[in-house]
Structure formats: structure tokens, C-alpha cells
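Can anyone check this?
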Amino acid sequence: MKKVIGLLGTGVLLFLFGCAAREDIIILANRTSSLERTMYQVKETTEENNASLSKRMEQMEKRVGVQLQPVLQNQANTTSQQEALKVQLQILQGRIEALEHQQKKEQAQYSESIAKEIKELQARLQKLEKPPAPPASPTEGGPKPEKAKETARETKEEPKEIKEPVKMTAEDTFEAGQALLKKQAYEGARKKFEEYLKTAPKGKHLEEAQFGLGESLYGLKESEEAILTYQKLIKSYPKSKWIPEALFKQALSFLRLKDEGSARLLLEKIIKEYPKSNQAKQAKQKIKTL
């Protein structure tokens, strides 16, 4: 009996368990179907969204491409212009280097030419500075006896002219020379300036007297002596205010001696070393006529 009851209990349990499992299976199946439908909907939605997103991306790419095209074109043009400018810059640099080389070459040639001309001018000045040859004797073609007598008379009469009632001071002699120079009495001015330079070796008007002597000789057209006198002023007083005028008168004296090369050299020196002087303007005008 107990066995029967046990078997019945077991059967009931199995039946109840079977019913419970069946319901669970049905519930699981329903949930699975629901999940599959949901997944399908999600998949469809995702695909639609992807398609829409792809479409929007393509539209955006087209818009961006249209907007970027001018920018890219400008960038390409700018790059091309930069390359062209680089090439032009290289060409200009090459020309500048060539011009600099040519300029250095011409400057070297000009310096050599100037140095050569200066040497020649110095040599000419040295020749002019040499003492004159002693006068020839009467037997060697000197002055005739009559002329010699006249010269002797002049030398005898000279002391009468030199004698003055009142002895002149060095200052008076200089002022007399200046006054005669202004009147263009060049011979008298020459004597006064020579006397002052001889009797007042430490006078306060030495520089101006040396220049005045040069002016007197230039006025007398004694070109070689004028050149030497002006040169003595230039050597003795290198900062003298009379130097530009002295150089200009030296150039004019060389032109009188038909030495155009030396004259041009001195005129160029005035223009280069004393560009603001009045003589520089005169030198420029003079060079145009050579």
C-alpha cells in the first residue's frame, strides 16, 4: 500500500513538474519571439539610420569639397607664385653678385689708374721743384752788352724804388701785398708776399701770404711757379681753408701748360675730397669742357 501511495505521489509530482516546464517553455518562446521582433526592428532602424547617415555624409562631403576647392586652388596658386618668386630671387641674387664683382673689378682698375696718375703728377712736380739752370754766359748766347747795360741800370735804379721814408713792419708788408693783389697789381703783390715770407718766418699770416704769392704768380701767368707755390701751401698747411682754391688754380695752371691729364686728376680730387666747396662745383663744370 505504501508502495502504491509512493508511486502515485511520484506520478503526481512528475505531472506537476511537466506542466510547470511546459509553461516555462511557452513563456521563453514568447519572449524569444518578442526579442527577435525587437532585434529585427532595431536592425531595420539601424540600417535606415546608417543609410540616412551615409547620405548625409555624402552631402556634407560634396559641400565641403565645393567649399574647399577655391581654397585648394588658391593654395596651389600661392605655392606656384612662391616657387616663381624663389626663381626670380635667385636670378636677382646672381645679377647682384655679378654686378658686385664687376664693381670691385672696376674700382680696383680705377684705383690703379689714380695711383699711376698721382705718381706721374708727383714726378712732374718734382721736376718743377728742381732749381733752374744757371744763366748762360755772354759767349754762350747770353744777353747782348747793350741789354746787359740796361739790366745793370735797372738793378741800380731798383734800390731807389725800394727805399721808403718810413720802414714798413711785417704786418704793413702783408697788408700792402693784399691791397696790391686786390688791385690785380700782381708783380707788386708778388714782391710784398715774398718779402713777408722772408722777413717774418714765424708771422701770423704765413698761410695766407703763401696763398697770396700763388695767386700773384697765377695772375702773372707763371704757371710752373704758381703750381709749386700752391703745392708748398698744401704740404705745409694740410688743413688750410685755401686748399680747394689752390688745387683748382693748380689744375688751371696745368691746362695752361697743355697738361690736361694732370688738370683732370686735380679736378677729380677736389670733387672727391671737398664735395661741398665752391671749387667742387667749378671743377664739375670744368671737367665737362675737357
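Reply from J.R.: I decoded it. The first helix runs from residue 2 to 129.
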